[in-house]
Write a structure and sequence with these properties.
Length: 455
């Protein structure tokens, strides 16, 4: 083909002559699309992205074939039809550059190959991945040499960009309902186990949740201040990591790692928290702590108390721990203290963080538990009970969450309450399952909630 006829859109190169595209492969694939229009759908189901074409003219030929497929039910789509479509788009201003003319389309058509389309598509995709990787490398070099370099922000941004180098396949995942029967029947007769559920440490709660938290779920724990959100979250972390050896990450934006460590030891060893804070532990306290020390030391519980946590930073940390430690549970304390992305309003920013947390859980097939503040709604009600609608700043939190659990302690509002020492875990939303209220005992002096199951 006479490349002098083309609009100025030469093959881009990077440093040291690095070639970003394979024009021969692009030429053949565009030609083959006209001769065999069905490959457009076939390759789309295999994850091919026409955006990976480096030459605009070839890409627009591909788009024209996609558009014409509805009119041409079978057989080839000749260059005349493609030319008419391109010229129509050009007249409408949809194509910013000059498309191939009819003579060029005739010449292009001659390069069609009928048996190797998937190979050429894979070649184009591979070169596009290399180009994106080269771009990330250039960006990383520029950030590293910048006078405004910030290790946390810039490294997290590069890690996020690296995750986008290889695009998620768009393969067709539709399944006939009959193929699901064996899986459904197997699940119906196999109780959940530690392999696919994360026990909460509370028998009735585990029963309600079909064995505990599941991979891919976003769990929101909401409460007013001083109700024990962090204590409850630490209880879930202890149940997972210390009692069941499940790799867990606890992100604390409010309490220091040393404070969390003290609460964990207090809860596990049943040593009064105020004794530990004041350095007044007795010999009996020391013995109890010594007995629990090996289990605590061996637990795969990772704690980070950095005050500035953004979604890119969290995603980078999760990505690393999934790869190196088999991470399965992430707990964030708490949502409203996270660094919000730039947005038109606080509500929009919180909505975006909520959505990203749900996507994080699904992408890595982990459980994400996030704590959230409630507004003053409970305090304005006679019975003081919290509701899911009390979640502050965004209804998107409720929408994105698979489970919303609200904490309520009657004696927090009425010191002489007949239910003093009790606490309710109100499961107000449970996607795909029942809701209920689970009653526990609150032992604040040991920094823990205790199971009161009747199961």
């Amino acid at each position: 083909m006479n490349d002098d006829l083309w609009d100025a859109n030469t093959n881009p190169t990077g440093e040291a002559g690095f070639t970003h595209g394979d024009l021969d492969a692009e030429k053949i694939l565009a030609a083959t699309a006209m001769a065999r229009p069905d490959i457009v759908d076939e390759l789309a189901m295999q994850g091919f992205d026409p955006g990976d074409f480096t030459r605009d003219q070839y890409r627009w030929v591909w788009y024209a074939v996609e558009e014409l497929r509805a009119s041409f039910k079978s057989g080839e789509i000749r260059y005349i039809a493609v030319d008419r479509q391109l010229q129509a788009w050009r007249a409408d201003g949809r194509i910013p550059s000059v498309p191939l003319n009819q003579d060029q389309l005739v010449e292009l058509y001659a390069h069609a190959q009928h048996g190797s389309a998937d190979w050429y598509a894979a070649r184009i995709t591979e070169k596009a991945v290399a180009a994106r990787l080269d771009g990330v490398g250039s960006d990383a070099k520029g950030r590293a040499r910048s006078a405004t370099f910030n290790a946390d922000d810039d490294v997290a941004a590069i890690q996020t960009a690296l995750d986008g180098v290889v695009r998620t396949s768009a393969q067709d995942e539709t399944r006939l309902v009959g193929t699901l029967l064996e899986e459904v029947l197997t699940d119906a007769t196999t109780p959940p186990n530690n392999e696919n559920r994360i026990p909460t440490g509370f028998m009735d709660l585990d029963s309600l949740l079909s064995g505990g938290f599941a991979p891919g779920q976003l769990i929101v724990i909401g409460a007013r201040p001083a109700m024990g959100k962090t204590t409850a979250a630490l209880g879930f972390a202890r149940a997972a990591a210390i009692q069941h050896g499940i790799p867990t990450l606890f992100e604390s934006l409010e309490m220091s790692a040393s404070e969390l460590g003290r609460s964990i030891v207090s809860a596990e060893a049943r040593v009064a928290l105020h004794h530990m804070k004041l350095g007044l532990a007795t010999d009996d306290d020391i013995q109890r702590m010594a007995r629990r020390a090996p289990a605590i030391a061996a637990a795969p519980l990772h704690i980070n108390d950095g005050a500035n946590l953004s979604m890119p930073m969290l995603r980078a940390r999760v990505r690393n721990l999934v790869r190196t430690a088999g991470l399965r549970l992430v707990i964030v304390d708490y949502l409203q203290l996270m660094q919000a992305p730039k947005a038109e309003s606080r509500q929009v920013a919180v909505s975006e963080m909520s959505r990203q947390l749900k996507l994080l859980a699904r992408e890595f097939q982990i459980t994400v538990v996030v704590l959230a503040q409630l507004n003053r709604g409970p305090e304005q009600r006679q019975e003081k009970l919290p509701q899911v609608s009390d979640l502050r700043e965004s209804g998107a939190i409720e929408q994105d969450a698979d489970i919303v659990m609200l904490l309520h302690r009657p004696d927090a509002y009425e010191k002489e309450s007949p239910r003093a020492g009790e606490a309710d875990f109100i499961v107000g939303k449970h996607r795909g399952g029942p809701t209920a209220t689970i009653t526990t005992a609150f032992q604040g002096h040991y920094a823990r909630f205790v199971d009161m199951a009747n199961t």
